[in-house]
Design a protein that fits this description.
By secondary structure, this protein is α+β, with helices and mostly antiparallel strands. Helices cover 18% and strands 33% of the residues. The protein has a 3-stranded antiparallel beta sheet. It is extended, with a radius of gyration of 16 Å. The protein binds zinc ion (ZN). The site of zinc ion (ZN) has 8 residues, from loops.
Length: 83
């Protein structure tokens, strides 16, 4: 693969599976074990377009079509000036 990191110019990447947090209008979807390529130098993560499309579609299925996600979690929310 001939790819260069946009941030540091490094050419070495490793394949990883990571947690991806998709956010849209204050609604969140957490997807675990998403494949990506990570820059070995700066750690920047690159996702393939079809991977992101899939996550976007699942977000729509859940928030617009009422699909039940595998699991739901409670997330604490704070205002910075109050902490
Ligand atoms: Zn990099």
């Amino acid at each position: 693969m001939k790819k260069i990191c946009n941030f540091c110019g490094n050419k070495n990447f490793r394949e990883r599976y990571v947690q991806y947090i998709y956010k849209h209008d204050d609604q969140f979807l957490v997807v675990n074990n998403v494949p990506c390529e990570e820059c070995e130098y700066c750690g920047e993560q690159y996702f393939k377009a079809d991977v992101l499309k899939k996550i976007e579609k699942d977000f729509g299925d859940i928030y617009l079509s009422g699909k039940r996600a595998k699991k739901e979690i409670k997330v604490p929310v704070e205002e910075f000036v109050e902490i």
